[in-house]
Give the backbone structure.
Amino acid sequence: MIKNLEIYTSEIANFKTDNLEELNQFRLKFLGKKGILIELFNKIKEIPPEERKQFGQDINILKSAVLDKVETLKTDIESKQHSRHSTLDVSRSANYMTLGSRHPISVVMKQLCDTFKKIGYTISEGPDIEDDWYNFESLNFTEDHPARDMQDTFFIDEKTLLRTHTSPVQIRVMETHKPPLHIICPGRVFRNEAITARAHCIFHQIELLCVDQNVSFADMRQTLDYFVKETFGPNRKTRLRPSYFPFTEPSAEMDISCDICNGKGCNICKYTGWVEILGCGMVDPNVLENVGIDPHIYSGFAIGIGVERLTQQLYKTKDIRLFFENDIRFLQQFESM
Ligand SMILES: [Zn+2]
């Protein structure tokens, strides 16, 4: 019997578990109604009277050992489970945030700004909401010019509107700064147009303005050539067509050969093989007068580049609407930029 007690003592001392169910089995094995301890107590009467006292004490020691063991292991297991469910687990590996990417329009805007910064131009910006003076009147738009029509412009009230081009920034700069001026004005513009694969009611422009003494059409042509070579490489074909803008005289539009169809004709180039990417011209003397610059001393040129058209050509994007849909499958393709 004494030998049995020794075996039980060592079994209790060596018992280990991190499972509550196993611990319960252990507890029942010793303390249950048919457990070892009850069995041992029942055997007291079989023990010779002179050994009973000692035997009783030994059983009680065994009982306390079981109770201690159960209590200790239970506390351990519960504290481990608690830390597993707690929100702070210092052993976990860190969560990585997915990196975003630049929007293709932003990529191209930055590229164009960098191109012109290299030849001495600085960036100027202005508000999206303009008044009639900055958007139209100062830029030589007559009172009855069709661009003032409700169909082309988003009016907020009779004299306030969403700017239809970035040219108002030129006026704001010329009103407050004296020539020589070399600025680029990147920004968002708005026109009340039907949304198609090649046109949208919101788009982006970068305008360039150079005002100094003796600035000529040849200077503008040279700046255009530089811009096309920097942006599209040395082999892209360009052509200048005479055009009309109220704020420049003479005016021109520049086309580049369509890279989406290699000049063969597609819906982006309206099946002509050419895509218009910018308007340009010599600043109309009336505009210079409107901002207090003497047109007899100074002359200048302005270039307005449509960023979406350019981006479409650079990345062969067939539908302008993709730039505004925020479809992650489209945007992820620009992740490395
Ligand atoms: Zn084409």
Notes: Strands lie at 122-123, 129-131, 155-157, 160-162, 181-190, 202-212, 238-245, 248-257, 274-283, 299-306. The mean pLDDT is 89. The domain at 104-334 is CATH 3.30.930.10 (BirA Bifunctional Protein; domain 2). DSSP finds twelve helices and ten strands in the chain.
